[in-house]
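Quick review question:
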């Protein structure tokens, strides 16, 4: 669970067991610095890493900690440090981190260590501003929700074979994804 105190700009991630008892709080790095200022989306990667979309106040980041709470890295955009307004976040079968960026209106793919791999959706495509993400591990489809035009688009960029062999390499930006179905419009 992500927690934000907007009054004093403090954020933290808390974990609970199945009984609802608090088991862990992640708030600071190993030097005592705050990790989050505005955590809004959270997911867990296949390796147990906690992946957080931290909108922040002034500068956003994808903040990743290992299962025990140790800070692994913070990704702040590509090129490095160029700025990021992270929104929806998820991971795929190959442990890639996928994040919606409100600044560039793209979906960016990172490897599990925080290295930028590619843009999966760019401004030139029909989505408008991608806002939310969900990855279906059974169909290997990425569901992307748009902020303004009430559309949900479904994309496939990983094949079943990629997932089984763990050998997928991202394609160049213009070929990174294709729509496996038409956009769904909700009215």
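Suggested answer, residue by residue:
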């Amino acid at each position: 669970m992500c927690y934000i105190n907007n009054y004093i700009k403090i954020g933290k991630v808390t974990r609970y067991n199945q009984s609802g008892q608090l088991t862990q709080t992640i708030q600071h790095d190993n030097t005592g610095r705050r990790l989050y200022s505005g955590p809004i989306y959270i997911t867990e990667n296949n390796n147990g890493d906690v992946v957080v979309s931290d909108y922040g106040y002034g500068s956003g980041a994808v903040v990743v900690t290992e299962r025990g709470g140790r800070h692994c890295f913070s990704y702040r955009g590509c090129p490095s440090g160029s700025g990021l307004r992270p929104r929806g976040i998820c991971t795929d079968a190959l442990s890639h981190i996928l994040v919606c960026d409100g600044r560039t209106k793209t979906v960016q793919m990172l490897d599990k260590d925080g290295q930028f791999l590619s843009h999966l959706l760019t401004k030139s495509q029909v989505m408008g501003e991608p806002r939310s993400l969900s990855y279906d591990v059974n169909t290997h489809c990425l569901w992307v929700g748009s902020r303004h035009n009430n559309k949900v688009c479904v994309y496939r960029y990983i094949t079943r074979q990629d997932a089984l062999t763990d050998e997928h390499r991202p394609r160049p930006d213009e070929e990174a994804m294709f729509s496996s179905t038409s956009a769904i419009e909700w009215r």
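Why it works: Helices lie at 160-165. Residues 39 and 54 are 4 Å apart (CA to CA).
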